[in-house]
Amino acid sequence: MTTTDSPQPTATPKGPVSRATARRRRSGDTERGFSRVFRWIATGAGSLILATLAAVALFLLLRAWPAITASDEEISSAVGRYPEGTSLLEFIGPLIFGTLLAAVLALALATPVAMGIGLFISHYAPRRLAQVLGYLVDLLAAIPSVVYGLWGFLVLAPVVKPIWFWLGDNLGWFPLFAGDVSATGKSLATVSVVLAVMILPIITAVSREVFLQTPKLHEEAALALGATRWEMIRTAVLPFGRSGVISAAMLGLGRALGETMAVLMIISPGFLIYSLQILAGAQHQTIAAYIALDFAEATGLAVNALIATGLALFLITMAVNMIARAIVARRKEFSGAN
């Protein structure tokens, strides 16, 4: 009975190595070295973002802490515009309300228009026209906010004032259009329109790129089954781009929440926390505009109170981004992209 020996592994021959083999070995070592360096750079960049965010949060918290721990009498005496006994929450509350109301109204106005423009550029317009429109939409994002503020104050407010009066006369029963209409047009409604124009290029640009990424096989399959152009968009394009549109809307919302100069130049400020009368003047104010308006003349505890409002805005923007990420992660598996 003969036994078959298992094959033994061939030993690597020792001796001089050819130049090509040595070159390949050196190249592999170099690539591994570059990979390690790139990994360190990427890790450092990510850590730098987290460190910067933590530093900003820590700075705001430390500078706002004297106002957070101050008594109501100290806050009211430092701010000056509030009666005695006003707490920090009563000081920040109207600003938070005005900021959220203006941003949400701007988002409600801009998102449908931005989606329509994005769909027109990506699926309806001829190529040359789409390129021109895409360039013009991107150009809107380069206009400074001061220019938007001047346009809103000098041009838009006189134009929309008759519209606001018509809404107040005919739809005054609705809470948003109730109350006395501002005679100058400087109201939260005008601010919301300007903010909608400002965030329009952000939402449009992202939505356009998302719609262009829709797989052609999905679109061709819908058309092959007899769907019209709109039915193809409704069943293939919109489900695929839902998460991207949500992300675009949240980016626009973040821009609207932090806008300063345009709001400061247009709005007639007020501090009524639960006022929904967007057509009336002296009703609302936003956090960013209030800080820009009062920071130069603030001293002592008033500075800490303003920084506390900045901390509130920081927390609001973080919450908005976290909610957006959660929505996108939840909707992604149902978007048709998988």
Automatic annotation (TrEMBL):
Look up keyword Transmembrane helix and say if it applies: yes
Q: Which residues form a coiled coil?
A: none
Pfam families, sorted: BPD_transp_1
* The entry's keywords: Cell membrane, Membrane, Phosphate transport, Transmembrane, Transmembrane helix, Transport
Subcellular location(s) of the protein: Cell membrane
Q: Which top-rank group of organisms is this from?
A: Bacteria
Instruction: Report how it sits in the membrane.
Output: Multi-pass membrane protein
Polar residues composition-biased segments: 1-11
Membrane-spanning ranges: 40-62, 91-121, 133-157, 188-207, 261-282, 302-324
- Region Disordered, as annotated, extends over 1-28
**What family, per the record?**
Belongs to the binding-protein-dependent transport system permease family. CysTW subfamily.
What name has this protein been given in UniProt? Phosphate transport system permease protein
Q: What organism is this sequence from?
A: Myceligenerans pegani
Upper classification of the organism = Bacteria, Bacillati, Actinomycetota, Actinomycetes, Micrococcales
By which gene is this protein encoded? Answer: pstC
